[in-house]
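Journal club prep, shared notes

We agreed each person brings one worked example of a sequence with its structure written out as tokens. Mine is GNAT family N-acetyltransferase. I'm keeping it raw so we can talk through how to read the token line rather than staring at a rendered picture. Sequence first:
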Amino acid sequence: MAVMEVAFDPAYGEAWNRRQVEDALMLGNCHAQVVNSQGQPAADDEAAAGFSLSRTGFEEEELLLFAVVPEYRGMGIGRSILDATITSARSRGAKRLLLEMRRGNPAERLYRTFGFSPIGERKAYYRNALGSRIDAITFAYEFPQTL
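Then the structure, token by token:
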């Protein structure tokens, strides 16, 4: 929750509250990746530098939340989290990883670097704090097929 409080711009209302995160994790099909400032899995007594939360469905996984503490951005933390998320999703049998983000989200560059491609759009889906509407873009990462 400490990462959530500083990583998400309050102008967009994207952060979840504690209850939403707890409820998701209690479902059993949601999975968290939490890393320290070196991009390694964070121990219980370590401060988190970033995290992801994903949900498993039939042959798909959806990236629900992805965040890095601002002071650690640009240091490879996001790459570590996304790599761990992709690896764990694949181990659960996912054939693709989906995510949805607001147009203009700076994380788009990272997602595209990993091979995510846009597959859909929701016009005026998000609303910022000033009431302006922003499109949502759905991206997919297709896992390479193995023989």
